[in-house]
Amino acid sequence: MEFVIDVYLIFLILFFSIKKKFHIIVNIFNYFVLAFLLSSYFSIIGVNLGAFKIEGDMKLEILFRLYELIFEPLICIGYLNLFCSVKSKLKKIVLSVFVFFIFWAAEFLFVQLGVITFINWNYQKTLISLFGILLTTYFCQQWFRSILKKEGIQT
Amino acid sequence: MKLPNSFDINEWFVLICMFIAFSVLHLLPKRFPLSVTILIMLFSSTIARFADHILSTPRIDLYDIMNSPYYDLFDIFTYVLVAPTGYFFVYFYDRLRIKGYWIAVYIVIWSTFGTAFEWLSSYFKVFIYKGWKPTYSFTFYLFIQSLTLLFFKYVTFIHQNTPKNN
After folding, report:
1. Domain enclosing residue A47, as ranges
2. Is ipTM > 0.90 here?
3. Are B164 and A151 an interchain contact pair (Cβ–Cβ within 8 Å)?
4. Inter-chain residue contact B34 with A35, CB threshold 8 Å
5. Does residue A56 contact residue A116 with C-beta atoms inside 8 Å?
């Protein structure tokens, strides 16, 4: 458990120390969109579809809640910033593979810790869903950036 | 996304409130840049979503929204309804130029209004309490509305201090 907290803290330090491609207002917008979409996604697959169950130690569940509401959106924001700042296609592909590996590893860790139990779900479905969420966020972000551009803010 | 099992009084309540809220929003003179308005509304909806996601999950289960423990279309409509409410809160704060200890008075008044509105919503079965009490909502609103004002101040500060092209 301490290991997960350490990873969270290192990630937070890393996230806030990296220079972002987008304006802070765009990143705040992205965070709220992602937090809304991700929490809805977890409710739909966990409660509506019953595709996975959250159980086990309450402390571990808190770690999982922190992941779904704070860290997963921040990973996505970091990814969107980096994805739009790198130029070469190869780097974009390597970055995407790396980020999706992080998503897989995080979920694998929560399954191993006994926080999540898959009932009618698997890692591929998670990755496809996350791809959809990232794509939706990207389009929302582009729309929001166009509004900021009209207001004279360079994003 | 699930649709409601039956179209009852709670669905009507949400739709009528949404209609009223968005009509008022449309009629009010524009006060903030569109991007700030979007952020305030998105902030309010996401905070409501966070609270419901944590407090009404199966293991904690303090209340249900609408008719069932499931996440359905009208749950999303309740978040859509929260968005203009957050905007009105910030709008009148800015419009009335509230300062000093009047900020505390303003937050207490809005928290009371929020709690009363939530009680009315529970009367129309929008919320079905299982362990939650309206007094908890009051405490929650005191905290969240303070946070909303801080967020509004921060976003407007950033917006005003960013160099503009035109």
Report:
1. 2-7+20-148
2. yes
3. yes
4. no
5. no
